[in-house]
Amino acid sequence: MTAPLSITARRVSVVRVEHPTRVPFAATRRERQEALDRGRLLTGTRRVLALRPAGRRPRHPSRVLHPDSAFTLIELIMAMAGSALILAAVFGVFGRAVHMRDDATARTRDARVRSHALAVMRNDLSNARITEGLLATVLKGSQTSPGGEFPGYLKFTTTTASDDQDLPTADIQKVEYFVATDPDTQDQRAGRLVRTVQRDLLTEVPGTPTREPLLSGVQAMELGFYDGTDWQEEWEYDATNNPEVPKAVRVRIQLATAPGERAPAPIELLVPWTTEVTKP
Fold it and tell me: 275 to each of 32, 129, 237, 245, 272, how far by Cα in Å?
C-alpha cells in the first residue's frame, strides 16, 4: 500500500525579474540558478498546493544533489596520478625488501658452506695420524698442486673414516685437499676446493678415490707448517730423511673476486698437530 497523501498550502513570494536570462558572468552557480528559477515564476503572490506523503517531512533543499554536480576530468586525472605515485612508492619499497631478503639468504648460505668446509678440514687435521707401518705413512703439503691448476696441495692420513661393515677397512683413510677447476662457473680465476678420500690402503691396486667438492669460488689455498721456530711453506714426512711432524698446520683459503672489487680477507684455519709418530 502507498502512504496516504496530505495536502498542505504554503505561500510563495514571487519576485519580478525583467531579464532572467541576463545574469552576470561573475555570479556563482547557485546565484545564477536562483535567478533563473525566479525568472520562470509568475509575477505576484499565489498559493501553491504541494502533494506529499503523510507523516514525511519535506527534504531540505541543501540535501538534494544538483544535476550538474560531478567530478571533472582534471580531478579524475589528478586522482589517477596520485594513485600511480602511491603504487610506485609501494612497489619500490617491496622490491627493495625482496632484494635485501635475497642478499641475506645468499650470505647465510655462503657462510654455512664455508663453515662446513672448515669443519671437515679441521676434523681431518685434528685426527691426523702417522705411523711407521704401512697404513698411516703420508704427510705432504706444498704450494703447488700436482695438477698445476691452482696453488695449494695437502695430503695426509687420518682416522676419520666411518665404520662400514661392507668394507674390510679400518678407520684410517688417506685424504687430499686441492683446488680444481669448477665446471659450474665460467670464471677461470675461481676454482673449487675438493676433498678426495681413499680407504683401500692395503690393496695392491688402489681404487679411484672418492671426490667431494667442499667450497666454490676459491682462488688459491696457502699452507703453512710450524716446526717449533718458524713457518715452513712445504712439508713432506719421510721415515728416513724427515721423520718429524709439524707442531701445527695453517691453511689459508683465498676467495676469488670480480675485477675491480676489493679482495676479501682469506679464510684461515689453524690446527695444532697433536699426534706423534707411533710404531705399529
Answer: 107, 6, 14, 9, 9
Extended beta strands in 65-209, E state: 139-142, 153-158, 173-181, 191-198
When pLDDT is averaged across residues 256-275 and rounded to a whole number, the result is 84
Half-sphere exposure of 9 (CA within 13 A, CB side): 3
CA distance 267 to 222: 10
Where does residue 141 rank: exposed (0-12), middle (13-18), buried (19+ CB within 10 A)? buried
pLDDT at 13: 47
Report the C-alpha gap between 182 and 132 in whole angstroms. 37
The C-alpha cell 504554503 sits at 10
pLDDT tens digits, 72-113: 888 889 989 999 999 888 888 888 888 898 888 888 988 898
Neighbours of 186 (CB within 10 A): 7
Helix (H, G, I), strand (E, B) or coil at 271: strand
For residue range 166-207, what is the model confidence (pLDDT) as tens digits?
665 667 888 999 998 888 887 778 889 999 998 877 777 777
Q: How far apart are CA 17 and CA 4, in angstroms?
A: 38
Q: Can you give the length of the chain in residues?
A: 280
* pTM (two decimals): 0.64
Tens digit of each residue's pLDDT (9 = 90 or more) over 16-69: 444 444 545 445 667 767 766 666 544 444 444 444 455 555 555 555 455 556
**Residue 230 neighbours by CB distance under 10 Å:** 8
Measure the CA–CA gap between 269 and 264, rounded to whole angstroms.
16
